[in-house]
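Re-run requested by the PI after the first attempt was lost when the workstation crashed. Everything re-entered from the original request form. Ligand of interest: adenosine-5'-triphosphate.
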Amino acid sequence: MLVGRQDEVQRLADLVGAARRGNGGVLVLRGEPGIGKSALLDHVRQAASGFTVIEASGSEFESELPFAALHQLCVPVRADLPDALRVAFGLATGTPQLFQVGLATLGLLGQAAKDRPVLCLVDDAHWLDDASAKALTFLARRIASEPIAMVFAARYGLEELPSLVLDGLPDADARTLLRATLDEQVRDRIVAEARGTPLALLELPKAGGFAPPDTSTITSRIERSFPSQAGQPVRRGPALAHPRERGPDRRPEPAVGRGQSAGRRGSGWWRRGSLRPGRVRHARAVLPSAGQIRRLPSR
Ligand SMILES: Nc1ncnc2c1ncn2[C@@H]1O[C@H](COP(=O)(O)OP(=O)(O)OP(=O)(O)O)[C@@H](O)[C@H]1O
Ligand SMILES: [Mg+2]
């Protein structure tokens, strides 16, 4: 889903609306890598209902092949190409004439536009082969009275055509996009890993990210998150201690390992920290014993 970009969306809607009325036009979306040029092309593709959409994209690997991008655009429009284009694409012998190629492309798209308006999208136009760039620029300058809209996305180049420079998203839109990203990616993973356990659903997002697969169990991450939420150093064991390891008051006690003195029992992190014993008990109620937890699969 496209976030923000209201001005750009409006400008594209105006372009498409004018083409629908027979007043063709062109716009180059310009900006640095990742700024959202292709995202806007996706948007206009979906927004242009009733249009015949034809597409091409520049490619680093084809930038030395004359008319490679134009070939992408024209071949799907009609199988029986005019001679000038057949020559340009190496389907007939002869030397391609740029002017003839431009006119033939205009004729091809103009014919297609008699049925339905045409939207021509060219992504990564900075990598267009030179011959295609010239032919498409020729075309773009001659569609003013055709129901044809052309939108290019380019990091650079095509300076002679009208353009719209994309800046970074404003902070509010950036936050919205981040939330949307968390929804799609992190939430799905949290749901998958939590396996429906409400405590896990509530605590995993606070557990400070995901461990690499197979190295850490869900429960151990939740377990670790409790002391860190209490602002205390991490010590394994307390929240998940076996009932036999609890103190006489039935409150959860830190696990005492072999060789540890009983005197350390009274200095558990849960006594000093802000984490309440009740909360720790809740963790124990949901999670099985430490022994069982360690036998759980890590995914
Ligand atoms: N306004 C937006 N709302 C939501 N997602 C966006 C928006 N703009 C960009 N994105 C996402 O950000 C990523 C990068 O955007 P995009 O691919 O459009 O960049 P670009 O300008 O085409 O970069 P490049 O020059 O490398 O092709 C994509 O995943 C795209 O879907
Ligand atoms: Mg792109």
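Saved to the shared folder this time. The chain has two domains: 6-165, 197-295.
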